[in-house]
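Chain A, query sequence.
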Amino acid sequence: MNDRTDDELDRLLAALPLEEPPAELRSSILAATVQRVPAEPIDPWEASAWGLLLALAAWLVPHFSDLNGVIATIDRVAFTLAQPATLIWLTVGIATAVAISAISDFSPRIHLARKGH
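Chain A, predicted structure.
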């Protein structure tokens, strides 16, 4: 075994010729760990789709006891969605939502990045 003390080992380690770390090493480590914005658990379109499905299910629940009521409700919904005015308003609403979410000030990712402010 070696009978060297910790002080001697520290001195020998300090005397080793080591390369300097890259200039941006600390900032890249911080950016990859501490400052990283966590990913969203689900995409916004998935949340919207699930919300729509749950709303439709909750709306149809009272009609489940009567099959004719379910068919009549689906028929009314299909008729309403097939109307030109309804299609135009749906298109305008979806286009507006997409346009607003494309603006960086309304993006949820920007707010997550500014969490400390």
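Helices lie at 6-15, 25-32, 44-60, 67-81, 84-102, 108-113. Confidence is low (pLDDT under 50) at residues 110-117.
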